[in-house]
Amino acid sequence: MMEQDTPLNPVAFDLETQGLLARDQITVAGLRLPLGAHVLLNTSGRSVPDDLETTIAAQCGLDAVRVDICNSEKHLLQRLTTISQERLHDKNRMLVAFNGETWRGGFDLAFLRTRCGQHDLRWPFHEIPYADLMPLVQKRVNTTVEAEDAPDEVGDLCGTYDLLIGGNHCDPYEDSSEAIYADYNGDWESLVLHNIADIERTQQLAEWMQRYIPVSDFRLKNLKPPRPGRE
Fold it and tell me: Is residue 227 part of a domain?
């Protein structure tokens, strides 16, 4: 476990994918950096509107949005590594995710490891502190709500955000599974907006937790693998 005397600034991370299988590709990777969102969009070589970034920036409500168009998953992963080393490494920042690697092994980081391995690429988050928010919600926050038959625990990202923080968001989806169909149909605008909504929810939850939960409960870990990876 890593502990810091000076609080680390959270940077929320979230992936969108073609599905849940190991062979499915990453379609979007988003980071909620201090000034706004930086999103990598894998179009698999398909075209995007010239004004995509401008349109998304006008709808998401953030001060700054950058959308990098990647023509392949490999290109996306390489770009993610570059951004991570430029914007997270030695910057007093920690990566945060909601179920990045918690329930059933987690999603975002587990998926990312498999896809990096498929391309024999370097792990993007070398020497980056990481905290998962899901265990903090499960163990340190009361999320019991009234349900149809009996009180129930809210445990997902959207439900937790709505309960603890709430407010407007730019998410066009009722369910995150819609992101799969958006990639298939080339609906880049809704796909990126959904990712931005999720990283903004995660970012706000991380900042909320830093105000109310002991630093020792964050259980920071260093994402550095024991062996150096390929470039």
Answer: no
State the sign of the Cα–Cα–Cα–Cα dihedral 40, 133, 6, 3: negative
Domains: count for the chain: 1
Neighbouring CB atoms inside 10 A of 167's CB total 10
Q: Which pLDDT score is estimated for 177?
A: 85
Helix, strand, coil shares of the chain as percentages rounded to 5?
40, 20, 40
What's the mean pLDDT when you consider all of the chain? 93
Domain containing 27 equals: 9-222
Does residue 148 belong to any structural domain of this protein? Answer: yes
Residue 175: strand, helix, or coil: coil
Any domain includes 228: no
Task: Check: CB of residue 95 under 8 Å from CB of residue 125.
Answer: yes
For residue 78, give every residue at least 6 positions away whose Cβ sits within 8 Å of its Cβ, in sequence order, or none.
Answer: 121
Instruction: Kindly state whether residue 1 falls inside one of the protein's structural domains.
Output: no
- Half-sphere exposure of residue 159: CA atoms within 13 angstroms, side-chain side: 15
Which CATH number do you get for residue 32?
A: 3.30.420.10
Q: For residue 155, give the DSSP letter.
A: -
pLDDT bucket at 230, cuts 50 / 70 / 90 = low
Give the tokens for residue 147. Answer: 């349900």
CB atoms within 10 A of CB 39: 26
* Spatial contact of 130 and 96, defined as CB atoms under 8 Å apart: yes
CB contact at 8 A, 35 and 118? no
Counting residues of the chain whose pLDDT is more than 90, the rounded percentage is 82
pLDDT digits (tens, 9 = 90+) for 44-58: 999 999 999 999 999
Name the DSSP class of 35: T
Is the pTM value of this prediction over 0.90? Answer: yes
